Amino acid sequence: MNKKNKNPETLFHSFLQSVDKYKKNTAFIYRSTEDEHEVTYEKLFEDVLLLSRAFSDKKIVKDTRVLLLSDNRYAWIVTDLALVSLGAISVPRGSECPEQELSFIMEHSGCEFIIFETEKLYDEHKAFVEGLDKVKGIFIMEGENRHKMFSRVYTYNELLTDRTISDEDISRFRSRKHKLFKEDVFTLIYTSGTTGVPKGVMLTHDNIMYNLEVIPWLIALRDDDTWLSILPTWHIFERAAEYAALMSGCCTIYSSIKTFSADLEHYKPTIVATVPRLWESMYTKVNAALEKQGKSKHRIFNALVAVSAAYKRNKRRLKGHLPVFEKEPVFKKLAGDFKAFAACSLLYPLNLLAVKKLKAVQAKFGGRMRLAISGGGSLPQYLDEWIDALGIRIINAYGMTECAPAIAGRALNCEVFGTLGPAVGNTRLRIADEDNNPLPAGTEGEIQVKGRQVMPGYYDNDTENEKTFTPDGYLKTGDLGKLTLTGELVITGRIKEIIVLANGENIDPSRIESTITKLPFVKDAVLVGQDKKGLGALIVPDLDKLKETFLPKIENMVHDVEDMLKDSRVIDQAKREINKLLNAKKGFKPHEKVHNIHFMENDFEPGKDLTNTLKKKRHAIEKRYQSIIQKLFGKD
Fold first, then answer.
1. C-beta neighbour count of 186 within 10 angstroms
2. In whole angstroms, what separates CA 353 from the centre of its chain?
3. What does the pLDDT look like over 272-296, one tens digit per residue?
4. How many CB atoms are closer than 10 A to CB 341?
5. Which of 3, 217, 536, 582 is placed for a possible disulfide with 588 were both Cys, Cβ 3.0 to 4.6 Å?
6. What is the DSSP letter of 177?
7. Torsion, CA 35, CA 232, CA 94, CA 626, rounded to 10
8. CB 554 within 8 A of CB 573
């Protein structure tokens, strides 16, 4: 890490360096229809060169902005690297991006070219695209011949008819690195965000190269590591993971939500990067599968997890690996340590049994998993403890698009559980009050960051830039957190997500929501109640579990789904179950109980209600379900 003079300056420099070093390694594995394809670093180099040449022929040059509308696939990374080689600026988005948002992005960014993943996707937006006079070219990754006289549309098949590569082509392609500099913007990412209108985050080569210097070191990345990719590839968390894998000679396997579980067992990855929502889904699936095998088996599994978690918690207490926010009096510390020692002694034989039995669950994750990285949101404590109890080393990471993305991480250099670890190398991180004054350890405030990874600003948005940076140059994350005495970060909430009740009580909804979703009949939950007397919740139910839970308790319960979701007896019972969890022993206050609930008929939708990393877009949910929320509170 200290040999900065040897670090490549840009992403393209790094790509060339990696290709030269790992030529014969497998870079990517992907499926098309039923066939599986393996791509070496040498083949990747050729594919990127050919597409870069084709784009250059169509007049894509340095600083040209190109809208890239696609989900995970091998052609995405080839396209991305081809644009990087030309110094063009990619403006990536997922295929489910609403047309209204696309219209805003096209107008605001000034994109001159558009790349669509499929012909179907192009046809969906054809009427919109035909009205864009400033667009010089439209390219489609997957499709047959599409170009007609005077048409701007070309498929990749048409662009890449000539696949011969001369020595001159290679020389010209490699020499492009001399025209690229670390200060150059290489991508413009519009945050779908949990609040407000999308903002264009400008990221430079230096921003991403900082991440590529620290990430491999933090997770001890090796060229024999295998990554399983499932997150949206255009999102900066997944993108940085793919770049890190690529620059370290690793193999990345493209998966999907549909095939993820099967791919874990089949490919046996050593590393996987996911978001908290996917861990919640896996937690629910594992528990549901065990329930089907019998209640006693499920109870034994939960008991083994509880034993493992308790043993590890007490052992960490003795090692000083739990978060400490204020100095503990000597006698209190000694008493706590004695209790922890006694607990470890009693639990030791049971923990040996738990470790042995829980290996069967590890096999469901492939059996070779070295690290599981969770980012793109805060991992709830119960999930953190559950994954850890299974014997999987979880890297709990914190970042944001504006930092490309790394800010902090409980990586291999940190053993303090229940935290997000310290700030990543040479990053200045502080907790500040409303006037941007630094706060001491243990005090909650806004997380603010300064470092090489921080963006130069939002594109063409002076108002937001002024709000986002402090006078002394720190990025205001909008997240609430506090630091331990030893400098590890703990997130406590989000400033803009705080619900303020009519009595002035401030409530962080995320902690309550993650607790509610532990109930088997709750798939998802969103808290509402701004300026109301109490909290309400929009609940996405698991219908089978809802029937299973309440059918034995309610006489003459209707089986029709619509009637069941409106049955006041079901609603009251569910509310009671929810509020049982929100008790004082678990740190919840009386005003954090739920007063009213509404069962949703459909899941929350990515793009409309959720971001592409499945975070809740609260402003969109409150707007879309305004009439339901009003009924929930009546005349309150």
1. 24
2. 34
3. 998 887 888 888 888 888 888 888 9
4. 14
5. 582
6. G
7. 130
8. yes
